[in-house]
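Hey L., structure's done. Input below.
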Amino acid sequence: MHSEQPITDALRQAIGTSALSIKAQERETGVSRQSMMHFMRGTRTLRLEIADKLATFFKLDVRPATGNATTKAPTKRTEN
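Output:
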């Protein structure tokens, strides 16, 4: 994944554009077809563990978004 986009969008794109069928993706990743189909339809979300398996399988580069206040490292406090 080269451009920054939400992991859910990247996973949906990877699943949908894969040359492998959902059945083959299930066999290769260990993630059930039902989970992937519900996720693709938007009727359920993925647990982090499952999203991690899929991101690893599809070789997605997952990192915090730049400029997002929730991903900035905490400011180090100094004592006077």
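Residues 71-76 have pLDDT under 50 and may be disordered. The domain at 7-61 is CATH 1.10.260 (434 Repressor (Amino-terminal Domain)).

-- N.
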